[in-house]
Design a protein that fits this description.
The chain is of the alpha+beta class. The protein is built from twelve helices and nine strands. Bound molecules: 3,4-dihydroxyphenylalanine (DAH).
Length: 340
């Protein structure tokens, strides 16, 4: 009678264990069968009703049933845990043979590449690379460069004024003045930097662009030094067959002043679409530093002389890479930048 009951408990428990879907279900079965208020405990409590001769047998059977259920529970637990682990591993599987995600490498901007090249050429000739402020005093941007109060260059149409005396520099030439004022001679400098003009954006204009200023001040510097230096630069930058030509020009801070043309590196000077049939392309302004400019910055023009030049960085970048629209340099479209 008790034996039948025990058999039933065993059969029911084993069946439940077999069908348990997870560890919680297993635990519920353990509690309901083996727990303090479980079915087996009930049986043990009713042992007092069993005859003394039968008791050892029944006791033995209870132990057997408990051991069998415990063992089956343990196996089932292991089984469920192993299945869970398999599922977890499957979910975390990484296919190491898949190609890696592509990372896009940044590229040096063409302006920057050209600037580096220009700096390399001039530092190779003993020049120092210096910098000046983008927010500048009217004095340095105009006054000290021999550009008097009513000069058209000071027109508010061209210059971004911040106050009456403070502006966004319209050229890198004020760095000349700042270097001369330091009073350390001789000077051999280039000063690359951003300049600002209130221009409408089009293929050749932008309100913000870059110039590379150059200046040499020493004893006995002549126009021949200027020509030799800039010709050397042109040949190194554009190729050794490049020819240069100086045309008279006017800048307030140089006397005499000139613009330098280079033979078109596309057609070699025969004339093509690129140089608009001219065979020559203008690349910079230059001249001998005006004695009055030297004087204003505390340099004796009887003892020292010098030359200066100003290169439009975007201009020579467009030429070098044969780009026909300056706006491309500012949009930073990676499809464009990737080409350099
Ligand atoms: N500052 C001039 C400009 O913005 C360029 C220039 C011309 C600079 C002649 C010079 C120079 O140093 O000698 O148009």
């Amino acid at each position: 009678m008790m034996k039948d009951e025990l058999e039933q408990i065993r059969a029911k428990a084993l069946n439940q264990i077999e069908n348990a879907k997870n560890l919680d279900a297993l635990n519920d079965i353990r509690v309901s069968v083996l727990g303090k208020k479980g079915e087996l405990k009930d049986i043990l409590r009713s042992m007092k009703d069993v005859s003394p001769e039968e008791r050892p047998n029944v006791g033995k059977m209870v132990n057997e049933v408990r051991d069998a259920i415990e063992e089956t529970l343990l196996d089932a637990k292991k089984n469920l845990e192993a299945k869970a682990m398999d599922a977890k591993l499957a979910a975390e599987t990484i296919d190491v043979t898949l190609p890696a995600k592509k990372h896009r490498l940044g590229k040096a901007h063409p302006n920057f590449k050209v600037l580096e090249e220009v700096e390399k050429i001039f530092t190779g000739m003993g020049y120092e690379v210096v910098a000046g402020p983008e927010i500048e005093k009217d004095y340095y941007n105009f006054e000290a460069l021999n550009i008097p109060a009513n000069h058209p260059a000071k027109d508010e149409q061209d210059t971004f004024y911040i106050t009456k005396d403070i502006l966004l520099r319209t050229q890198t030439s004020p760095v000349q003045v700042r270097e001369m004022e330091k009073g350390k001679l001789p000077i051999r400098m280039i000063a690359p930097g951003r300049v600002f003009r209130s221009d409408e954006v089009d293929a050749t204009h932008s309100p913000s662009f870059h110039q590379i200023e150059g200046m040499v001040i020493d004893k006995n510097v002549t126009f021949a030094d200027l020509k030799g230096t800039l010709e050397t630069f042109a040949k190194e930058f554009l190729g050794k067959d490049t020819k240069v030509k100086f045309r008279p020009h006017h800048f307030p801070f140089t006397e005499p002043s000139a613009e330098m043309d280079v033979s078109c590196f596309k057609c070699g000077g025969r004339g093509c679409r690129f140089c608009k049939g001219e065979g020559w392309i203008e690349i910079l302004g230059c001249g001998m530093v005006h004695p009055h400019v030297l004087e204003m910055s505390g340099i004796d023009p009887n003892e020292y002389s010098g030359f200066a030049f100003g290169i439009g960085l975007e201009r020579i970048t467009l030429l070098k890479y044969e780009i026909d629209d300056m706006r491309l340099l500012y949009e930073n479209d990676v499809r464009f930048l990737d080409q350099f």
